[in-house]
Write a structure and sequence with these properties.
alpha+beta, single chain, 239 residues, eight-stranded antiparallel sheet, 34% helix, rod-shaped
Length: 239
C-alpha cells in the first residue's frame, strides 16, 4: 500500500477567502491506494479543549472512517474519504463540517467549505488566528501548587481580561465613594414631617414672650399703684 502526500487549504463556501476551519487542519493530506479505490486522510490537530470538530460530508466521496484521539496536550481528529481517481483532486472539493471554537464565538456552527489540493503556504483566517494567539498567550501563565507541583493553565478571551482590569481599577473608586457617603450620613436630615405645633414651638419662643409681657404688666401696675399713693399723700398734706 503505497502512500503519498499532498498539501491543501480550506476556503469559504463562497470562495471569498480562507475558512475559519483552515486554522485547524494540518494542511498535509495522506493518499493511499486500496484495490480499485483511493483513500484520502485529513487531520485536524489543535490544543486540547479549544475546539470541537465533526466532519459531515465530502463531495469527493464517502467518508468511510472517523477517529478521535488525544495525544499529549493535543486533540486530533482523523477522517478518511474513499474516491475513485486522483484526477478528482485537480478540482476543488466541497465539504461540510460542524465546528465549535468558544474563544472565537463559534458554537456548533456548520461550515460549508472548499478543499483546494496542491496549494501550499496559505495564510490562516485572521479572526480565529487572533483568538488562538490570545489563548496561547494566556495559557503560558501557570500557577504551581506546592503540594502536587501541578500547573493549572488559565485561558481567557481578550475582552474578559479588559473587564477584569476595569473591575480592578474600580475598587479604589468604590472605596472612596463609600467613605464619602459615610461622611454625608452625619448630615442626613430626618424625613419625619413636623406638625404645625412643633413648627410654631421651634420658630417662636412663646413661653419667653408671655413671661416678658407679664413682667411688663407687673411693672406698669406697680407704677400706677405707686403714683396713686404718692397722689393721695399729696392731697392729704394739702388739707
Amino acid at each position: 500500500m503505497k502512500k503519498q502526500f499532498i498539501d491543501y487549504a480550506v476556503y469559504k463556501a463562497d470562495h471569498s477567502g480562507i475558512s475559519a476551519a483552515n486554522n485547524f487542519y494540518t494542511h498535509r493530506a495522506e493518499i493511499t491506494k486500496q484495490k480499485n479505490r483511493y483513500l484520502l486522510t485529513l487531520k485536524v490537530k489543535v490544543k486540547h479543549g479549544l475546539v470541537k470538530f465533526q466532519p459531515l460530508q465530502m463531495s469527493l466521496g464517502k467518508i468511510v472512517k472517523r477517529n478521535f484521539q488525544r495525544i499529549e496536550n493535543k486533540d486530533c481528529w482523523t477522517y478518511v474519504t474513499a474516491f475513485k481517481s486522483l484526477k478528482q483532486l485537480d478540482h476543488q472539493i466541497s465539504g461540510s463540517l460542524r465546528l465549535s471554537v468558544p474563544i472565537a464565538g463559534i458554537n456548533h456552527q456548520i461550515f460549508k467549505v472548499w478543499f483546494a489540493f496542491g496549494v501550499k503556504d496559505v495564510a490562516k483566517n485572521d479572526v480565529v488566528q487572533k483568538s488562538l494567539a490570545d489563548s496561547n498567550q494566556d495559557n503560558n501563565v501557570a500557577t504551581t501548587n506546592n503540594s502536587s507541583n501541578e500547573s493549572s493553565v488559565v485561558s481567557k478571551p481578550e475582552n474578559q481580561n479588559k473587564r477584569q482590569i476595569q473591575r480592578t481599577n474600580s475598587v479604589p473608586k468604590k472605596k472612596a465613594n463609600d467613605a464619602a457617603l459615610k461622611q454625608l450620613k452625619k448630615y442626613q436630615v430626618s424625613p419625619k414631617k413636623m406638625v404645625f405645633a412643633e413648627t410654631a414651638l421651634a420658630e417662636y419662643p412663646i413661653l419667653q414672650t408671655v413671661l416678658a409681657f407679664l413682667l411688663i404688666d407687673l411693672l406698669i401696675v406697680a407704677g400706677v399703684l405707686g403714683y396713686w399713693r404718692w397722689n393721695l399723700r399729696k392731697q392729704g398734706k394739702q388739707k
